[in-house]
Design brief:
Catalyzes the reversible cyclization of carbamoyl aspartate to dihydroorotate. The chain is α/β, with parallel strands linked by helices. It has 12 helices and 11 strands.
Length: about 325
């Protein structure tokens, strides 16, 4: 048995569903899931259906709810529907806000912004060193990069999934832009070829792509084009998932799947520390958590069993997978 002590992991992209959809997850269950997966801090996304985080009042409400229930650190990304730019100045200064999330493609919630003039107004109005995060696929990503360059904004591309997107990010970085990208474990391990077997459990946003795209993701991860692992933890009730809701619970499978990559010699433990702690901390300027660490034995394998999840979403496309990196102890 060889115990490795990692810093408490950071996930900059989770959907903890409170307020508005606590039948799927809440701050208590979601942060317990985070701790169970080795995370000491998570950053919650703003697209709560019916209650998006697009005002300071909504933000403070979320903070109050989270602080009453949390099992680990919780930060927040601010949202926009294009009507709340007057609140950006206050949001950028808030210590619990780590970025602005813009949805340029259809996904859960009602914050979709496709109008290019409105997008430009938002980029111009967000006068902050805190990153603008985009859900931007295809040509929308190209336009977001153009706007970030024009207004000298820090840009983070969430859940990158296509070879063409890796190419765009690589080009932007080589051009000296302050741009970063994250990838999910499910895009690293699943492709369109898994859809027939997994059914609705394979329904994601962005959708699963081809083997060629997945190969490009691994290449981008290894050459530094992709900066970090983000789970895009998206819990749903079985009933909602059966109706085609996008996303999967990811907090309790991410470390094991990355440990599998170590076992298969695709990554090193140092890579995991960089991708799941150092880069998230640096890119989002996250304060130190000196007492947070997680003890992991990467030689120990285990079988993913979603019935043991702390998340309310007790299902996973990775059920039955043999993974590596058993958590022995965590301090948050």
């Amino acid at each position: 048995m060889a115990i490795t002590r990692l810093p408490g992991l950071i996930d900059v992209h989770v959907h903890l569903r409170e307020p508005g959809a606590t039948q799927k997850e809440d701050f208590r269950s979601g942060t317990r899931a985070a701790v169970n997966g080795g995370f000491s801090l998570v950053i919650d996304m703003p697209n709560n259906p019916g209650a998006p985080t697009i005002s300071i009042e909504r933000l403070e409400e979320k903070i109050k709810l989270a602080d009453a229930k949390k099992a680990c650190g919780v930060g927040f990304h601010y949202g926009t529907d294009g009507s709340n730019m007057a609140s950006f100045a206050e949001a950028t200064k808030h210590p619990r806000v780590f970025g602005l999330k813009i949805y340029c493609n259809h996904t859960t919630g009602n914050l979709l912004i496709e109008d290019k003039r409105k997008l430009e107004e938002i980029f111009k109005a967000w006068e902050s060193h805190k990153p603008i995060l985009v859900h931007a696929e295809g040509t929308q990503l190209e336009f977001a990069i153009e706007l970030a360059h024009k207004y000298k904004r820090r840009l983070h591309d969430c859940h990158i999934s296509l070879a063409s997107e890796v190419k765009l990010i690589r080009k932007a970085k080589k051009g000296g832009m302050n741009v970063s990208a994250g990838v999910t474990p499910h895009h690293l391990y699943l492709t369109q070829g898994d859809e027939a077997k997994l059914g609705v459990k394979a329904m994601m946003k962005p959708p699963l792509a081809t083997q060629r795209d997945q190969d490009a993701l691994w290449e981008g991860l290894l050459d530094g084009t992709i900066d970090l692992i983000e789970t895009d933890h998206a819990p749903h009730t079985p009933e909602d998932k059966a109706k085609g809701a996008f996303g999967i619970p990811g907090l309790e499978t991410a470390l094991g799947l990355m440990g599998l990559a170590v076992h298969n010699e695709r990554l090193t433990i140092a890579d995991i520390i960089k991708l799941m702690y150092e880069s998230p901390k640096r890119i989002f300027n996250i304060p130190d958590q000196p007492s947070a660490d997680v003890e992991v034995d990467f030689d120990v394998s285990y079988i993913i069993d979603s019935k043991k999840f702390k998340s309310k979403a007790q299902w996973s496309p990775f059920d039955g997978w043999k993974v590596y990196g058993k958590i022995m102890k965590i301090h948050v």
